[in-house]
Amino acid sequence: MNGTQAAAAAAAAELAAHRAGVAVSELHELDEMLEACRVLDRVWRPDPGNPLITPELLRVLAHCGSYVVGVHQDGRMVGFCLGFLATAGLHSYIAGVDDSVRGRSVGFAVKQHQRAWALARGITTVTWTFDPLISRNAYFNLAKLGAAPSEYLADFYGAMQDEVNAGTETDRLMVSWELTGEHAVRSAADTPPTVTVDSAGAHAVVGLDAKPDGAPAVGRRDGDTVLVRIPTEIEMLRRTDPSLARAWRYALREVLGGLMAEGHTVTGFTRDGWYVIDKRQERQA
C-alpha cells in the first residue's frame, strides 16, 4: 500500500458520498454518540432493556482510534458504522441506515469511506459478518465490493432480541475484504466484475435449489463448480412462513456451511441469488 493508493481511495470515497447525497465523517462528541445509538435503534429495533451499544462505549471506542462514523443528510444523521481493530486489520462490527435513504448507495459510500480510512492508516484488510440468507447483502458484499467468505459461523450470536433477528438462528458468513486487491479497486471505480450462472461452466452442479413450492432442495456437491441458491426475500419469508425460513437456514448451513468446512471456497455470488463455489480455481491455485 502506498500514498497514491490511499489518495485514490479517498477520492473514490468522496465521489461515492457525493453520488449518494450524504456526508460520511468520524464522530467524536457524546451528543453524536447518542444520535448514533438512536439511528441503530431505528434500524434494528432492539428490546429497550437490551441496547445494541451504549453512547459511553462508543465515546471510548472513538477516543481510542476505532472506526466510529456517522452518515448525514441535510444535517441529520441517517446512518452509522462501527469498526474496531482486530488481528486481521479492521473488523467492521455494525452498520445501519434509515429507511429514508435505502436504495441510494449509501452503504456503498460508507464502505468506500471505510476503505479510505483504513488505507490511510496502513490497514489493508477489513473483515465483517453478515447473514448468508439475505440475498441483497450477499450480492453487495461479495459481488459489488469483492469481499471473500472465509468462515461459516453457525448460530454465531445465539438468540437475539431485536426485531430484525428475533426468532431465527444467527448464522453468519465471515468475510475478508482485501482493500488493495483488484476487485476492491474496481469496486471503488464502480466497475466490479460480473459473475453469472452461465459463466459457471458445463460441469457445474446444483447443491441447493428451490422446489416448486419454495422449499429448499439439497442436491449434488461433486462437480467442478457447485451452485447454491438462496431465497430472494428471506426477511419476508420469516414473517409469512417462519418454518419454511428455518428450513432454508438449515439447508444452507448443511450445504454452504458443509462445503466451506471441507475447505472449498466461495468465488462469487450472482445477482439472481446463487453462491458459486469453483473447485477448479482451488486446484489451479
Enumerate how many helices there are, as a single number. 9
* Estimated structural class: alpha+beta
pLDDT < 50 stretches: none
Regarding quaternary structure, what we see is single chain
Total count of strands: 12
Order of helices and strands: HEHHEEEHEHEEHEEEHHEEH
Percent helix: 25-40%
Strand order of the largest sheet: 1-2-3-4-5-7-6
Overall radius of gyration: 19 Å
What value does the average pLDDT take? 91
Largest sheet entry: 7 strands, mixed
Approximate shape: globular
Work out the strand percent: 25-35%
Distance between the termini: 23 Å
Structure, explained:
By secondary structure, the protein is an alpha+beta fold. It has 9 helices and 12 strands. The protein has helices spanning 3-20, 30-44, 55-63, 106-120, 135-144, 182-188, 234-240, 242-261, 279-284; strands at residues 23-26, 67-73, 76-85, 90-97, 125-130, 148-153, 172-178, 204-210, 216-218, 225-229, 266-269, 274-278. The strands form 2 sheets. It has a 7-stranded mixed β-sheet, with helices on both faces. The protein has a 5-stranded mixed β-sheet with strand order 9-8-10-12-11. The radius of gyration is 19 Å and the shape is globular.
